[in-house]
Amino acid sequence: MKPIEWLTGDVADEIIFHEAGHFVMGMLLGIEEAGIQFFRAGSCDSARSHYTAEANDQPRRIQRSLAGMYSQALTCPSSIDDELRSLILKGALFEREEDLKGTAVIQRRLKEHGFLGDTIIAMDLAAEISPKPEDILRVLRRCHSYVCDAFEPTRVAHIVRGVHQDIRLWLEEDDDWLAFDVRMLFYSIPRATKTFRKLV
Fold first, then answer.
1. Is the dihedral of CA 84, 85, 87, 91 positive or negative?
2. CA dihedral 18, 24, 28, 31 (to 10 degrees)
3. Helix orientation angle between 105-112 and 82-90, rounded to the nearest 10 degrees
4. Do the Cβ atoms of 82 and 72 come closer than 8 Å?
5. Running along the chain, 200 residues long, what does each successive block of 10 average in pLDDT?
6. Contact between residue 47 and residue 36 where contact means Cβ atoms under 8 Å apart
7. Within 10 A of 156 (CB to CB), how many other CB atoms are there?
8. pTM for the complete prediction?
9. How far apart are alpha carbons 33 and 51 in whole angstroms?
């Protein structure tokens, strides 16, 4: 059985690019990655990139959280409305204290595109550094700017596209283990790491 058959449905390119963005940024930051999990059609999530969190490492984890949407905005422009995509690519998501509130227009738009979970993680991590709204904004802007700068060189976009290509190959490869009662499907960290190292 192939992974794509186990999933009972295709995986959209923007989802793969989004999760690959998390993974690649994590690897570049030296975070201990744990593979990309894919879920069957009809599940609440389509995919999720896992990692091992370290205490007192909020900035790197924020950068990793924001990298998924940046990767998607860069590689799948039609999957995000133009205005929101522009804010993501310019590092301008967090401009005012009002933007941190759940009722903010920007929060609603992030939710509509499936980015709210990553945003909440980033905001919560920033609040661990300092609970003051002005400090949270400063941390988020700095981390978002770091992601923009990191993806600017073609090398990083090249790595993300290479990981996306390998995931597409993996989805179509036969895997005897999938004939058993497999409850979770992972693009494994050994394979992901091997692919990453070939591309760096």
1. positive
2. 80
3. 110
4. no
5. 90 96 96 94 84 88 97 96 96 93 93 95 97 97 95 85 97 87 88 96
6. yes
7. 23
8. 0.94
9. 4
d(CA 99, CA 140): 11
Residue that has been written with the tokens 């992901």 in this structure = 192
CA–CA gap between residue 163 and residue 20 (Å, rounded): 6
Please state at what angle helix 154-171 crosses helix 189-199, rounded to 10 degrees: 140
In the structure encoding, which two tokens stand for residue 129, read together?
């550094």
| Res 53: pLDDT | 82
Element (H, E) at 195: helix 189-199
Contacts of 78 (CB under 8 A, 6+ apart): none
Strand locations in the chain (E): 32-38, 47-52, 185-187
Q: What are residue 66's phi and psi, to 5 degrees?
A: -80, -15
Task: Report helix, strand and coil shares of the chain as percent, to nearest 5.
Answer: 65, 10, 25
For helices 13-29 and 133-151, what crossing angle results, to 10°?
100
